[in-house]
Design a protein that fits this description.
The complex is a heterodimer of chains A (about 80) and B (about 425). Chain A is mainly beta. Chain A has one helix at about 35-40, and strands spanning about 1-5, 10, 15-20, 50-55, 65-70, 75-80. Chain A has one domain (about 1-80): Folate-binding fold (2-Layer Sandwich), CATH 3.30.2270.10. Chain A contains one helix and six strands. In chain A, strands 3-4-5-6 form a four-stranded antiparallel β-sheet, with no helix packed on it. Chain B has about 425 residues and is an alpha/beta fold. Chain B has two domains: about 30-80 and about 85-110 and about 180-250 and about 345-415, 3-Layer(bba) Sandwich (FAD/NAD(P)-binding domain); about 115-175 and about 255-340, D-Amino Acid Oxidase, subunit A, domain 2 (D-Amino Acid Oxidase, Chain A, domain 2, 2-Layer Sandwich), CATH 3.30.9. In chain B, strands 1, 2, 8, 9, 10, 11, 17 and 18 form an eight-stranded mixed β-sheet that branches. In chain B, helix 2 runs parallel beside helix 6, helix 2 crosses helix 9 (about 370-385) and helix 3 (about 90-105) packs across helix 9. The longest helix of chain B has 18 residues, at about 90-105. Chain B is globular, with a radius of gyration of 21 Å. Classes of the chains: A mainly beta (about 80), B alpha/beta (about 425). The interface of A and B includes residues 41 and 72 of A.
Chain lengths: ~80, ~425
C-alpha cells in the first residue's frame, strides 16, 4: 500500500501513521454523555470505501484525509485534512 | 463413527475405504429454536455446548463459506490463560480447562499440546510487570513460574541473550499453555455438534435479520428465510457488518493481522516464546514449520492480507529474538480480520434486540478462547443471563466506564 501525499508525492505506507475514522465529529463541551460515548468508542467500520486520517510522520508532518476501500486497500483519493 | 484404536485398525485392514463424511450436509429447515451465525470455532463450539450442556437440539449453524474457513484456520494456534485483570483470568482459565478435556469430550484428536508459553522480559520494569501478572494469575489459582535468565537459557540456548538493546533478563512461564491444531478444533466441534443433531448449513450467508417490535424473528440467508427466536452472532471480523443488519453500531474496528510460517525444520522450539521488547510470538508446528506473528497492521481492513511494512517489522523482531531464524526461508504469510474493540477485550452479551446475542470483539486473541466463548454464548442464549466467568464482557461497558484494558492501550488498535 502506498499513498500519494499532496506535498511529497508517492510514498510507502511505512512513512505514515494511521489516525483512524475521519467521519467522527467531536461533540460540543456541553453535549450529552451518549454523544461522547459515540464519538470515543462507536464506529461504522464499513467494508468498502472508508474515510480516514493518515499522518505523514516521516516527512511533511501533514495530516491527510484518505478515501480507501477496506476490502481491497485501493486508495480512492488523498487530500489535505 | 467413534474414533478409537479399533476403528483405525479396521480402516487399515480395508485400505482406508470406509471413512464417512464427518458431518451431514442438510437442507435448512423452516424454523429452528436457535441459530448460530458463523461456522468458525466459536460458533461451532456454541452449537455443541447448546446441544450437549443446555439441552437444545433444534439448532442450526449458518456459515457463508465452508466450516473453519475464517480465523479458526488462520491463527497461530496458541492457547494460554496468563492474563492480568480479574475480569479476564477466570474466563481464560475456564477456556484452558476446557481445552485440557476437549479431545476426550468430543472424541477428536485436536493435538492439544501443553508445551508451555514463555513471555520474555528485557528490562527491570518489564520484570516487575511480569511478576505482577504472575501474582495475579496465582491469586486466581492459575499457576505461573518466574524463570531467571539462566533458567530460560537452559531451556532455549539459541535466543539472543546479549542483544545490545533488548537483552533477555528472564521470563514468565505458564507451563499449561501451548498450542492446539486449529483446523481440527473446527472439524472436531462440527462433528460433535452434528452428532447431537445440530444442522451445519454451509454456503449459507446471512443477508439480513428479521426484527419486529424489538424482537428477532429469524434470519434472511442466501438459502432462504429461516425462523428462530434466538440468534447468536459469532462472526469475528464481520461483527460490525452483521450488527448493522440489526441497526447497531459497535465499539469495533476490523483490522488485519498477519501470521507467518517458515520452511519445516527438525524440532528446535519446544514451547511458545513471546518477545517482550516488541510484540512477537513464535512456536513450532508438529509439521516442523516455525509459526509466528506480531501485531495488526494498524488500519481498518477487511482484505485478509497485510502489507509489507508489517512483514518487515515482524522479521526484525524475529531476528532480534532468534538470530538463527535469518538462515530460514519464510514459506507463507496470510491475514485474518480481527474485530478489535476499543479496550482490547471481547463482548459476550445480549443486544438491544430481544433474542439477538453477540459474541465478538475478540481482537487478536480469539482462538485460545474458543471453548469458553462457545460455552458462554451457549449459556447466554439458553438462560438469557451471562455465564459467571463472562460477566465483565458487557456491550455497555464503554458507556459505563467498566473497561477491560489489559494493555492500557486505549482506543489505539495497534497497541492491543
Amino acid at each position: 500500500m502506498r499513498l500519494t501525499c499532496p506535498f511529497c508525492g508517492n510514498r510507502s505506507i511505512a512513512e505514515f501513521s494511521y489516525y483512524g475514522d475521519a467521519t467522527l465529529t467531536r461533540p460540543g463541551s456541553n453535549a450529552e454523555q451518549s454523544a461522547w460515548v459515540d464519538y470515543v468508542y462507536m464506529r461504522d467500520n464499513p467494508a468498502g470505501p472508508h474515510s480516514e486520517f493518515w499522518y505523514h510522520e516521516a516527512a511533511c508532518r501533514q495530516v491527510l484525509r484518505v478515501e480507501r476501500d477496506t476490502r481491497t486497500h485501493t486508495i480512492l483519493s488523498v487530500q489535505t485534512a | 463413527m467413534k474414533f478409537s484404536i479399533r476403528s483405525v485398525l479396521s480402516q487399515a485392514m480395508q485400505g482406508q475405504t470406509g471413512w464417512k463424511p464427518q458431518w451431514r450436509n442438510p437442507e435448512p429447515r423452516a424454523e429452528y429454536d436457535a441459530i448460530v451465525v458463523g461456522g468458525g470455532g466459536h460458533g461451532l463450539a456454541c452449537a455443541y455446548y447448546l446441544a450437549s450442556r443446555y439441552g437444545l437440539h433444534n439448532i442450526a449453524v449458518i456459515e457463508k463459506s465452508l466450516v473453519g474457513s475464517g480465523n479458526v484456520g488462520r491463527n497461530t494456534t496458541i492457547v494460554r490463560s496468563n492474563y492480568l485483570l480479574p475480569g479476564n483470568i477466570p474466563f481464560y482459565e475456564t477456556s484452558l480447562k476446557l481445552w485440557e478435556g476437549l479431545e476426550q469430550e468430543i472424541n477428536y484428536n485436536a493435538m492439544v499440546s501443553q508445551r508451555g508459553v514463555l513471555n520474555l522480559f528485557h528490562s527491570d520494569g518489564q520484570r516487575d510487570v511480569a511478576i505482577r501478572r504472575g501474582n495475579a494469575m496465582r491469586l486466581h489459582g492459575v499457576h505461573a513460574e518466574l524463570l531467571s535468565r539462566d533458567e530460560v537459557r537452559a531451556r532455549h540456548p539459541f535466543l539472543d541473550y546479549d542483544n545490545a538493546r533488548f537483552p533477555i533478563m528472564g521470563g514468565l512461564l505458564q507451563q499449561r499453555g501451548g498450542t492446539v491444531r486449529h483446523d481440527a478444533v473446527a472439524w472436531g466441534y462440527a462433528r460433535a455438534a452434528d452428532k447431537l443433531g445440530v444442522d451445519i448449513l454451509q454456503n449459507c450467508e446471512l443477508t439480513g435479520l428479521r426484527i419486529e417490535g424489538g424482537r428477532v424473528l429469524g434470519a434472511e440467508t442466501s438459502r432462504g428465510y429461516i425462523a428462530a427466536r434466538k440468534i447468536g452472532l459469532s462472526v469475528a471480523g464481520n461483527s460490525s457488518r452483521v450488527a448493522a443488519m440489526a441497526g447497531m453500531r459497535l465499539p469495533v474496528e476490523s483490522h488485519v493481522l498477519t501470521a507467518f510460517v517458515s520452511e519445516g525444520i527438525k524440532p528446535l522450539l519446544h514451547s511458545v516464546i513471546t518477545f517482550g521488547a516488541g510484540h512477537f510470538y513464535i512456536s513450532q508446528s508438529d509439521k516442523g514449520g516455525l509459526v509466528f506473528g506480531a501485531s495488526v497492521d494498524g488500519y481498518n481492513s477487511y482484505a485478509q492480507r497485510g502489507n509489507l511494512p508489517c512483514v518487515e517489522d515482524t522479521c526484525e523482531e524475529a531476528m532480534a529474538l532468534m538470530p538463527a531464524l535469518g538462515r530460514l526461508r519464510m514459506l507463507r504469510s496470510w491475514g485474518g480480520i480481527m474485530d478489535m474493540t476499543m479496550d482490547g477485550s471481547p463482548i459476550i452479551d445480549r443486544t438491544p434486540v430481544e433474542g439477538l446475542y453477540l459474541n465478538g470483539g475478540w481482537c487478536i486473541g480469539g482462538f485460545k478462547a474458543t471453548p469458553a466463548a462457545g460455552l458462554c454464548l451457549a449459556h447466554l442464549m439458553a438462560r438469557d443471563e451471562p455465564h459467571e466467568v463472562a460477566r465483565a464482557y458487557r456491550l455497555d461497558r464503554f458507556a459505563t466506564g467498566r473497561l477491560l484494558d489489559e494493555t492500557g492501550g486505549g482506543t489505539n488498535m495497534a497497541l492491543h
